[in-house]
Specification:
With 1482 residues, the chain is mainly beta. The chain is built from twelve helices and 102 strands. The chain is 11% helix and 41% strand.
Length: 1482
């Protein structure tokens, strides 16, 4: 069997020395065959032994081998197949049996003699001379063996190199690791070298990786050293440290595939030699048992926005307590709940206290919710934030975004199905389809797989080479252009899935392998029928079939033919006639959409073609997957001040739904922006990156492989602001007073109030018996607004715990932690209880204000003062010190001279006559530092003398409020001060400033970081402000507007002005021509003191009302007046306008014109008279008149929706346009005065339109404008007379004025240059053009305005082409005009009696004068006495027979000819004899 080829070598079609094992290669170099052996004996010897059989991987084809071995040949070391074709090398393995002895060479015999027994006998029976001779012979034999071995190796190497050159494709194979890298454990600061030996053809490219990240020696100079020599590749790591502990991978790649090998490096450290820059080593194993770790994630990354192609880093600081040296938590990163692994796209780093994820090249696939998970023995902590990736700028404006998530499905030997997701951005134009590109692994050459774009987001790529690996990408296209390509897919190998499952070894999943099966193929067997044929996918572009191979095992190389037939017929056609497919899958293209087909499959191999499978059911070509329906109602809700939560109803009955895209737009804008560039599968999404305070609308569309749905209905507008949530729990519960059956509790406001003011608190209590708490009970049913509350109905000497819940408009929050256990017993101490509700305001670098509330428990005597204590926040208890040495009676104090930048806490103690009581709870720590942007209260006196305090805050939130206080008590009584807020500014306005207004005024802004300020209004300051106010208040009454007049409805006249500010004591005098007028029938007065508007109205104006009108005002000492003079033309115009408005009012009480009569020219150049009417009813009539004559009702009168129309100019009716250009009927006869009259019992109204003279000219100019705009671009054509420029218009009117221009000058027409109109074509003819006629031509349409000009450039190639065509047409016309012709005069048949004379004449034309030839029965005849032929005057040709006889009967022809052509005319002469019976003609 030495000549047969193993099946696995036939499959892989490649072989070289690298395929041999090292043992086999050494055997070849050690042994050789004797020249006495033939190939046959060598084969038989090998068959009898268990020697190795070597053969080619590729099963070398007969046509590609140049050497054959004859049956009788010299000894050889080549293995042959049945046809004596070289397939490899035979290496025998020798045995000690007797059957090999007969074939030994001299050299082999010498080896037999060199046994221990032979040597012993030789030593005994030979002399020393013989021994020396034997040694010489042995040396010669050894030298000869060495020379022959070198010769053999050289011959083998040359033979291999020959076949590599002659048959490279069949010898190519995937890389193989002859020696793999091994793992190392080294000490720190040592060097380590990883090396491997790789074979493969072509020579593989080797890349080293650390934790799946490619190693770049340039980026780490001196750290790594890479070498590659003679297929040996090494990685040297210099001065190893702990960071070098990792898994290293070496990847070898060529055009046939890729293979990887792995090795680990562990770096250890000497005990006692500690680098201070590194974390301290563990001294023995760290005991983690019994330790509870607390993990905190701080310094977090937030919602981030990136763009494709950018690099983004996400990081968090991780604090783990307690800190154990060298303890390593498990740090993991997730995207959309999928664990991420290190790759070229994702780089992860853990520095001991900070976790970082770097996205090296953003793509839309990277968009999603990123989660950092830190796991310890005690549990885990997570943090998440969303990352958005926007499309990169398109190379072509309006091009769509790149597709995303390209994947390979159902990979087979010769095709792979590629899927992707559609982009969210289509560039403003719908996407026409997608192009799929492929690239073979190891190359950079991309090939487009489809000629026309496919709309379905799934495409089967065919024409692949089995065993090779490919990567894919997809591009979208619309009418504007092509998108960027998508991110490249993961590589995938084109191979049978069954073979992939049987792969043995540790290769990369996308590479080929040597495939080992359990049996030899059976040769000469025709395969059976495939089974389970079905249509797995059908679209309008392609259909995918799948089937199962025949059940017989061991069939040789089964392939398949696919056949189709149209349903209803039995006409089967083979689809793949040239190349059978290898996979049990096949994609059919070029099927007619809408047609129905059936399919079947046949198996084939070298033995023949098998029977067909059962046909499939009829399949109609078309998209089986429908585009999903539009999602339902979209509901946006507030989330934060830059984000909105969008929810929607899912698409109904959506199949294979991939997800949803959300878009948003500012209210009132038509510009839509995508919220996500990666589809989301749920029906809820948080849209980030919005502008605070703006209103947005949202819409959603669904997506599957068939495409994107229609958009959902737009949502209601939503203003972006922080959502309202229930508040956090209060804290710091303390007891302020205790009696035998009740306790007064106090607590601190929650740190988070939920975005809305707290409306109240609810208190719960429970009894604690022997340390065991009981059931909670509600202390108050109605919420309390203060942060103190008396809990009643308690039992004396019982212990209680309390909890408090805060409430706002969003609801009631979660309860606080249970308080300490308090004993309900009556306090009997003499000193006061603790103050409570301490608050800090007006924090500055050198001062602050502390507020508090007095204690609830007064003690034996009333409280008469307070002491304030201060200490640094981190200082011990002993550091408390007093702020005031003398007790203050107030419940506030301004603490000055604090150290800038230091953090302090405060507490308050109350005193009475008995002494100083309990201390309050200390405040939260406060930093003594003026915050940037801090404002102070500013006092202002406006022009009206109003004194106000103004405070501005730049850090407002939507829920912020300004709270004004006097002496730090909120101003509840507005009898003295009014407060108003506009935007970021609030003011407290004094109504009537006096001594009772003296005090400290402060303003605090809620929902901010403590924005507050105060202003002290002393008696001296009040006097100063009152003086300024008086100076501003009383000089004059300022006016917002002077006295003016305006016209009201029904022609009434209103005189009015407005004062800036006037008090309730103000009064006005109305003066006309120096006489004061008063309220009455003629004059109506009104004075609005709140707005300062003063007005006087009159029903109408008469000539007696001409004069001067004056308003005189007085408010205390302040006075002012304003006058208006109405005389002369001004008064007359106002009176006329009043009368007109009065008439208009009465006119509109009946039917009237809302819009008076006008005209409109439609795009079809129809002229329509129209007017808009109102207040019509059934009895109202509308009459049309032209030039005073009523127009009849059949003149296209119309009335719809309050509009009257009359069409006075229409296109010709179809009956009128047969063979006649479409021209407008409008002409000068349509000019005239048109009138419409509306009338009924309420009155009548008239509207007139003058379409004469200028009015008609304006109308026609508008018609001409429509005609001009319908003109086509000026074009060039040629005629036999010259060159013609022309344009077409939709309609033409004889009144249209056009001007032709040449080089921007009007053309003076002549016999050579003419213009005209043919139908709807306007043309300019240039007869006999020359080079002087080249240049820019234009036609200008005159529409009475700017006109319209169409231009064309008659020069260069355009002129050359037109001139050449003119010459050709001219020559053709000349030839046609001057060619020889027979004009007429000859009959078709001449019947004549024998003996008569026959004379025929015809006209001849032609230039030059034609030659004339007469023929009889197709033979030329000449003139003689019997037959006289003449040609006279160059025009007349005559044919005369003086006396005809029967021999003259026959067919005659005249042939005229000149250089332009030839023409002939035929006639027949029939001569008869009268005596013949019946007048028979001869």
């Amino acid at each position: 069997m030495s000549g047969s080829i193993p099946f696995y070598q036939k499959r892989h079609r490649h072989y070289d020395r690298g395929y041999r094992s090292k043992e086999t290669e050494s055997k070849v170099s050690q042994y050789q065959f004797s020249s006495r052996y033939t190939a046959g004996s060598a084969a038989s010897t090998t068959s009898r032994s268990r020697g190795l059989e070597l053969s080619s991987h590729s099963g070398l084809e007969e046509s590609r081998l140049s050497h054959t071995i004859p049956k009788r040949a010299k000894p050889t070391y080549l293995a042959v197949d049945k046809e004596n074709q070289i397939i490899g090398y035979v290496v025998p393995i020798f045995r000690s049996s007797q059957e090999f002895a007969a074939g030994f060479s001299d050299t082999d015999e010498a080896r037999v003699r060199d046994t221990s027994a032979y040597m012993a006998r030789r030593d005994m029976f030979t002399s020393g001379l013989e021994m020396q001779r034997s040694e010489q012979i042995s040396r010669r034999e050894a030298m000869r063996e060495s020379a022959e071995r070198i010769s053999l190796n050289k011959r083998i190497h040359e033979h291999e190199e020959h076949f590599k050159r002659m048959n490279e494709d069949s010898l190519m194979h995937t890389p193989e690791f002859v020696i793999k890298p091994r793992s190392h454990t080294v000490w720190e600061k040592q060097c380590v070298r990883l090396h491997c030996t790789v074979s493969g053809w072509p020579d593989p490219r080797v890349v080293w990786y650390k934790n799946n990240v490619a190693i770049d020696p340039v980026a780490n100079p001196g750290k790594y050293n890479l070498e590659s020599k003679y297929n040996v590749h090494s990685l040297e790591i210099n001065r190893c440290d702990f960071d070098d502990t990792a898994q290293y991978r070496v990847s070898a790649m060529n055009s046939k595939g890729e293979l990887s090998a792995f090795a680990s490096v562990v770096v250890k450290r000497f005990k006692g030699e500690i680098d201070e820059s590194l974390p301290a080593p563990r001294h023995g194993p760290v005991s983690e048992y019994g330790v509870t770790f607390k993990t905190h994630i701080v310094d977090k990354f937030g919602v981030s926005f990136g763009r494709e192609g950018e690099t983004m880093s996400l990081g968090c600081t991780v604090i783990i307590y307690p800190t154990l040296h060298r303890y390593q938590p498990e740090v993991q990163w997730y995207r959309d709940d999928v664990l991420l692994s290190p790759s070229k796209w994702n780089h992860m780093h853990w520095s001991g206290d900070r976790a970082t994820l770097t996205l090296t090249h953003l793509n839309k696939e990277d968009e999603g919710l990123y989660t950092l998970r830190v796991t310890t023995k005690s549990g885990y902590e997570t943090y998440s934030a969303y990352i958005f990736v926007r499309d990169a700028d398109a190379e072509v404006e309006g091009a769509p975004g790149a597709p995303l998530d390209v994947r390979c499905l159902d990979a087979n030997k010769d095709y792979i199905i590629v899927t992707w997701k559609q982009p969210a951005v289509d560039g403003g134009n719908s996407i026409l389809g997608y192009f799929v590109d492929r690239c073979e692994v190891g190359t950079n050459h991309w090939i487009q797989c489809n000629d026309t774009p496919v709309k379905f987001a799934r495409f089967p790529v065919t024409g692949l080479v089995e065993g090779r690996s490919y990567a894919f990408r997809v591009r979208a296209v619309n009418k504007s252009g092509m998108s960027h390509p998508s991110r490249v897919s993961e590589p995938v190998a084109a191979m049978d899935p069954a073979d992939r499952a049987r792969i043995r070894g540790t290769s990369a999943p996308w590479t080929g392998q040597i495939i080992v099966t359990e049996e030899e193929p059976a040769e000469g067997i025709v395969p059976g029928r495939p089974g389970e044929l079905q249509v797995t996918e059908a679209t309008k572009n392609y259909v995918v079939l799948s089937w199962k191979p025949p059940g017989e095992k061991g069939l040789e190389g089964v392939m398949y033919y696919v056949e189709k037939c149209v349903s209803g017929t039995d006409n089967w056609q083979r689809v793949n006639t040239e190349i059978p497919v290898k996979s049990p899958r096949f994609a059919l293209f070029d099927l007619s959409e809408g047609n129905s087909y059936r399919f079947r499959v046949r198996c084939c191999n070298s033995a023949g073609v098998g029977e067909p499978s059962d046909p499939t059911e009829a399949t109609t070509v078309g998209d089986k997957l429908d585009i999903p329906s539009a999602p339902g109602k979209v509901v946006p809700t507030n989330n934060t001040d830059t984000s909105v939560v969008v929810s929607w109803e899912a698409s109904c009955d959506a199949k294979e739904l991939i997800g949803y895209y959300i878009e948003t737009s500012l209210q009132g804008s038509s510009v839509w922006e995508p919220c996500n560039n990666k589809p989301v599968k749920g029906t809820r999404f948080i849209c980030h990156g919005l502008m605070t305070g703006e209103k947005y609308v949202f819409r959603v569309r669904a997506m599957n492989a068939a495409g994107l749905s229609q958009f959902s209905p737009e949502s209601e507008p939503v203003e972006v602001k922080a959502a309202i949530a229930s508040p956090a729990p209060p804290y710091g519960i303390t007891v302020l007073e205790c009696v035998h059956d009740s306790m007064v509790l106090a607590w601190k406001q929650p740190t988070f109030i939920g975005g809305a003011d707290i409306t109240g608190y609810f208190v719960d209590y429970r009894e604690v018996i022997d340390g065991v708490p009981g059931k909670w009970h509600e202390a108050n049913i109605k919420a309390v607004s203060e942060r103190a509350y008396r809990v009643s109905d308690l039992l004396e000497n019982k212990k209680y715990q309390f909890q408090v819940r805060a409430a706002n408009m969003a609801g009631v929050g979660i309860p606080s932690r249970p308080s300490d256990t308090f004993l309900c017993e009556e306090w009997t101490i003499a000193v006061p209880g603790p103050p409570h509700d301490l608050q800090i305001r007006e924090v500055r670098s050198d001062s602050l204000v502390l507020l508090w509330k007095p204690p609830v428990y007064q003690g034996r005597d009333p409280v008469n003062g307070f002491y304030i204590d201060i200490k640094e926040a981190n200082a011990p208890v002993e550091a408390w010190r007093g702020v005031n040495t003398k007790a203050t009676e107030k419940t506030f104090i301004k603490i000055k001279n604090v150290q800038e930048g230091e953090t302090f806490v405060f507490r308050v103690r109350a005193q009475n006559k008995a002494g100083v009581g309990k201390t309050s709870e200390e405040t939260e720590p406060v930093l003594a530092l003026t915050k940037p942007g801090t404002k102070e209260i500013v006092v202002d006196v406006n022009d009206d003398g109003v004194i106000s305090l103004n405070f501005e805050c730049c850090d407002l939130t939507p829920d912020s409020k300004f709270v004004w206080s006097k002496n730090y008590e909120e101003i509840a009584d507005d009898s003295r001060v009014d407060t108003e807020t506009k935007g970021k500014m609030s003011k407290a306005v004094f109504k009537s400033p006096g001594e009772e207004d003296v005090g400290i005024y402060s303003c605090f802004v809620t929902h901010t970081d403590g924005a507050s300020s105060s202003y002290t209004l002393s008696e001296e300051e009040l006097k100063r402000l009152l003086q300024i106010s008086h100076d501003h208040k009383f000089p004059i009454i300022p006016l917002k507007s002077d006295l003016a007049v305006e016209m009201l409805e029904k022609g009434r006249v209103r005189f009015w002005l407005q004062a800036e500010k006037i008090s309730a004591n103000g009064k006005v005098d109305y003066v006309f021509n120096n006489n004061v007028v008063s309220q009455g029938e003629k004059y109506k007065m009104n004075f609005d003191k709140n707005t300062g508007v003063i007005e006087m109205t009159m029903e109408s104006l008469t000539p007696a009302d001409e004069g001067t009108y004056t308003f005189q005002m007085q408010d205390g000492k302040a006075t002012n007046q304003s006058s208006l003079v109405l005389i002369g033309d001004v008064f007359k115009q106002l009176q006329k306008e009043s009368e007109f408005q009065r008439k208009e009012w009465f006119r509109k009480q009946g039917p009237h014109f809302i819009e008076y009569l006008g005209y409109e020219v439609t795009p079809e150049c129809c002229v329509v008279l129209k007017c808009k009417v109102g207040n019509m009813k059934k009895e109202t009539s509308a009459l049309w008149y032209k030039d005073g004559h009523e127009i009849k009702a059949d003149e296209h009168l119309g009335f719809t929706e309050g509009v009257l129309k009359l069409e006075i100019a229409q296109r010709d009716s179809p009956a009128d346009t047969v063979d006649v250009p479409r021209r407008l009927k409008i002409s000068k006869k349509d000019s005239g005065v048109y009138e419409v009259v509306l009338k009924d019992d309420r009155g009548k109204d008239t509207s007139t339109l003058n379409l004469t003279d200028q009015g008609f000219k304006d109308l026609m100019n508008e018609v001409f404008s429509f005609i001009a705009n319908s003109s086509t671009p000026l074009k060039i054509t040629s005629t036999d007379e010259g060159i013609r420029l022309y344009t077409f218009v939709n309609y033409y009117n004889d009144l249209l004025q056009v001007t032709w221009h040449y080089k921007d000058s009007a053309i003076a027409f002549s016999d050579r240059i003419k213009s005209g109109v043919v139908g709807e074509q306007l043309w300019l003819q240039i007869t006999e053009p020359t080079e002087k006629d080249t240049g820019k031509y234009a036609i200008e349409f005159n529409d009475g305005k700017g006109g319209l000009r169409r231009t064309v450039e008659l020069s260069g190639q355009a002129f050359d082409d037109a001139f050449a065509e003119f010459q050709r047409l001219k020559a053709a016309a000349t030839a046609e005009r001057n060619r020889a012709r027979v004009a007429g005069g000859l009959p078709d048949v001449v019947t004549i009696q024998e003996g008569k004379a026959l004379n025929l004449t015809c006209n001849i034309s032609g230039n030059p004068l034609p030659e004339i030839t007469w023929l009889k029965n197709d033979r030329e005849i000449t003139s003689d006495e019997h037959c006289i032929l003449k040609f006279e005057s160059g025009r007349f040709a005559s044919f005369t027979i003086t006396g005809v006889n029967t021999s003259d009967s026959g067919k005659y022809s005249i042939l005229v000819k000149n250089k332009y052509g030839t023409e002939s005319a035929d006639f027949t002469v029939s001569v008869f004899i009268p005596e013949e019976a019946g007048g028979k003609k001869k």
